[in-house]
Amino acid sequence: MTANLVFLVIGGSAIAGFVSGLAGFAFGLVAMVFWAWTLPPQMIGPMLVVGSLGGQVLTVGTVRRSIRVKLIAPMLAGGLIGVPIGAALLPWLDPVVFRLGVGVLLIVYCGLMLLAANLPTITISATRSMLADGGIGVIGGILGGIAGLVGPAPTVWCMLRGYPKDSQRAICQTFFIVMQTLTLVMYSVNGLISAETLMLFAWMMPSSLLFAWLGSRLYLRLSEHAFRRMLFVLLLASGVALLGSSLRHALQ
After folding, report:
1. What domain range includes position 44?
2. Domain count of the fold of the chain
C-alpha cells in the first residue's frame, strides 16, 4: 500500500465524512471523486458502505428526538422489499444506461427546484402518506439494489412533503442505516470484503468519523432554507457525477 494511496483514502474519507455529517448523505458521491481512479470497484463498494454507515450511526443522534418509528416504518418496509427486487433486476439491466437515466432526472428536477422561487409541497391524508412512503421505500430499495443509489428517492420525497429539516434528516438517515446494513451483510455473505479491504477500513474510519461529527455540528447552525438548497445542490452534483461516469463508460 503506497503513501499516495493512504493519503487519498484518509483525505477522501475526511472530506466525504464532513459532507455526510453536514447533509446526512452524499458520502459516496464525494469519496468516489478521490477513489474511483485508484481502487477497484470490488473494494470501493464496501468502503463506501462502511464509511457512510459509520457516519450515519455516529451523527443520527443529532436528530434523535425527531425519529418517529410510525412515520419511518412504511419507508423501511418498502426498502426491505425493494433491495432484493433491485438485486434480481440487476442482471437484466444495463447499469450504465440506468445510471445515466437517474443522473439526467436528478439534473433536470434539482435544477428546476433551485430556480424556483417557492418549493412545491405535497399534502395527502395519513393513509395515502403511509402508502406513498412505502412506495418511495420500494423505489429507494430498488435503486440501491441495482446501483447503490438509496439516497435520491427518499431525500427528494421528504423535501416535497415539506418536512422540517430535523424530521427529514431523521427519516432519511434511519432509512440509509437500515439499507446500508443490509448491503454490508450481503457483501459479507458474498465474500466481497477481503483482508486488504479491512486494512483500508482501518485507515479511513478515524478521519471519516471525526469529520462526520464536525459536519453534524455545523448542521445545527443551518436554517431550513439553507438546508434545503444545500440538498438540492448535492443531488444536482450527484446527477452530474452519474451522468459523467455513465458517458465515460459508454464511450470506452
Report:
1. 3-251
2. 1
